[in-house]
Amino acid sequence: MSNEAANATTLVIIPTYNELENLPLIVDRVRQATPEVHILVVDDNSPDGTGTRADELAAKDDHIFVMHREGKGGLCAAYMAGFQWGLERNYQVLCEMDADGSHAPEQLHLLLGELDNGADMVIGSRYVPGGKVVNWPKNRWFLSKGGNVYINLALGAGLTDMTAGYRAFRRHVLEALPLDELSNAGYIFQVEIAYRAVELGFDVREVPITFTEREIGESKLDGSFVKDSLLEVTKWGVKHRGGQAVELAKEMVGLVNYEWNHFKKKSSWL
């Protein structure tokens, strides 16, 4: 880890695993778009040398810090470690951002602006009006959109994009959440954080963002996300809805049919 953080209020946490080419690009874009924020790169011992490259960037810029983890522990564990690092250093706002460029640093101000307007947590959403995805295969878009429809229906959180990973938190939200108890099944921790924040009464909002598929490297997402994550959501949904499980299933069938028809009509978006 590099030297201790200087005085600042906002920390952008960027987990990495084999992002040697992407990391300098995303760091430079963050520094250009929001020069006042600090960046913490959390590297899981990338075999391609990403951690070493992060150290080189940090050595030249006192707004950049690096955490080296012993192995590939997963995105959830990387963010939890980053949150803890930031909370210990008294950052007031902590943000999640992918290293691959899918989260545009140029739109970070939209999330931070909504915090300034009174929100406790802000999600950069692909599915609120104005949000969109770029360069995704149609089947992946439908899987993501359909999954989020199901999640919202099951949990009743009133959010359109609970799997999204572009987020900004006020520190008191993270301090209130049981971060050491989050599920690590797939990428479900993103859903669980949003769900628990809503359940605790925090003001959770969404702002539209443009999500762009990575151009360099390979996606870390695989089929386990669907299987593991939606299984967890179903368990929470049955608990949340209690005896309404049968009605939930019926509603889901109708909603899937609606979304599929809507998707076919709007396929030109993609």
TrEMBL record:
Which BP terms from GO are recorded?
Answer: glycolipid biosynthetic process
Q: Name one GO cellular component term.
A: membrane
Q: Tell me which residues make up the Glycosyltransferase 2-like domain.
A: 12-176
Regarding protein family, the annotation reads: Belongs to the glycosyltransferase 2 family.
Q: Give the matching InterPro entries.
A: DPM1-like, Glyco_trans_2-like, Nucleotide-diphossugar_trans
Recorded catalytic activity of this chain's protein: a di-trans,poly-cis-dolichyl phosphate + GDP-alpha-D-mannose = a di-trans,poly-cis-dolichyl beta-D-mannosyl phosphate + GDP
**Coiled coil (residue ranges):** none
**Mind telling me what this protein is named?**
dolichyl-phosphate beta-D-mannosyltransferase
EC numbers, comma separated: 2.4.1.83
The Gene Ontology terms for molecular function here are:
dolichyl-phosphate beta-D-mannosyltransferase activity
The signal peptide stretch is none
Q: Which CDD domains does the record cross-reference, listed alphabetically?
A: DPM1_like
- Top-tier EC class: transferase
Instruction: Print the keywords alphabetically.
Output: Glycosyltransferase, Transferase
Record carries keyword Hydrolase = no
